[in-house]
Amino acid sequence: MRNGGRGERASLRRAAGAVLSESAGKKETMELEDGEEALGGGERVISVSSSDSGSEGDEVAALPADTTSPRGNKASTPRKSSTPGERRRRTIYIAGRPPWYDSHGQIAEAFVIGLAGGSASGKTTVARRIIESLGVPWVSLLSMDSFYKALTPEQNKKAAENEYNFDRPDAFDMDLLVETLQKLKEGKHVEIPIYDFSTHAHAKYKHTMYGANVVVFEGIMAFCHAPLLKLMDLKIFVDTDSDIRLARRLRRDIAERGRDLEGVLKQYNKFVKPAFHQFIQPTMQYADIVVPRGGQNRVAVQLIVEHVKDQLKQRGFNNRPKLLAGQRETEALPDSVHILPNKPQVKAMHTVIRNKETKRDDFVFFTNRLACLAMEYAHSFLPFQVRGHMKMWIM
């Protein structure tokens, strides 16, 4: 490998260009300032070439994992920077955009819905009904239960005897919860801890969650921490009769969490019921909407869905009609963008990848294979010298 200087590296990067699969659709353009980050954690394959001060503007090519998207505005010509500290525009060629970009190509914060209520009041059911009725393909559901603090051996012993109070604000890792919800609101991917209710400890592995149009956050203490309230765009309190909540809790804790009847009743009377009146019920005053009867109240759920849809439209998330209006079929791709030949092998892989019945292992295998073909094709545009039986790429 040899270092050929700034000018040579810049020309090399332009020659390398970007490889996009032909079936990925049209291209769009948007502008970012230097230092801005393309958020979202894995929805697109992005190739970014950085430039030194005084060299030509950067070019970025992106390939989304989802369906096609029409073209946007014409690409602006990169301008040269006259001073080392000057901020420059970068032209981004993108086939579709992740959901956390608005119709103008700008990063838009996710719409965060907060759901609070007593234990077994039906918060998760309401959350799932909202998600099903929204019809938005990018929604993340975050549960406060994942952020219980791991217990010490002494606390674990008390929990086994149903003498440990899980129904108070300091039983949760609020700092981590605020940090996680803030990142999701910004469209960043996060690692969610997995809490085991039978051992009262965190699993060794974590769950990865990505950015979305809408983030639904639910938990008994969701409204008990001021920094969490500031992150919510809509606050919903699920109000259910205490007898119904107790019956649901008995069924859930015995069937799903390995508890016995006597232990559940003891914990409910000693901790859960007093905590509801002390911490949870007073937070109803912060709610924008109160939903009686939980998930059974379909009228309330539908009203919430209509309100969220209006908010998404105002934020520019409903950008498909605008993109379709700006479609230009005859617009040529820039010279630095090269299309992976659409051979039968590539068509077959796209058929498997886009089939909703495809198994997870097959999806991962063919996605990796398609990425390898794209990288091999991209390498064919790098300048090289033949030495013997080997090709030496010049970088």
Automatic annotation (TrEMBL):
Species annotation: Geodia barretti
Region spans: Disordered: 1-90
Compositional bias (Basic and acidic residues): 1-11
InterPro entries linked: P-loop_NTPase (IPR027417), PRK/URK (IPR006083), PRTase-like (IPR029057), Uridine_kinase-like (IPR000764)
Pfam family, one: PRK
Enzyme Commission code(s) on record: 2.7.1.48
Substrates-to-products reaction catalysed: uridine + ATP = UMP + ADP + H(+); cytidine + ATP = CMP + ADP + H(+)
Bias-annotated ranges (Polar residues): 66-84
Gene3D superfamilies, A to Z: 3.40.50.2020, P-loop containing nucleotide triphosphate hydrolases
Residue ranges annotated for the Phosphoribulokinase/uridine kinase domain, each copy included: 112-299
Pathway(s) the chain acts in: Pyrimidine metabolism; CTP biosynthesis via salvage pathway; CTP from cytidine: step 1/3; Pyrimidine metabolism; UMP biosynthesis via salvage pathway; UMP from uridine: step 1/1
Protein name: Uridine kinase
Family designation: Belongs to the uridine kinase family.
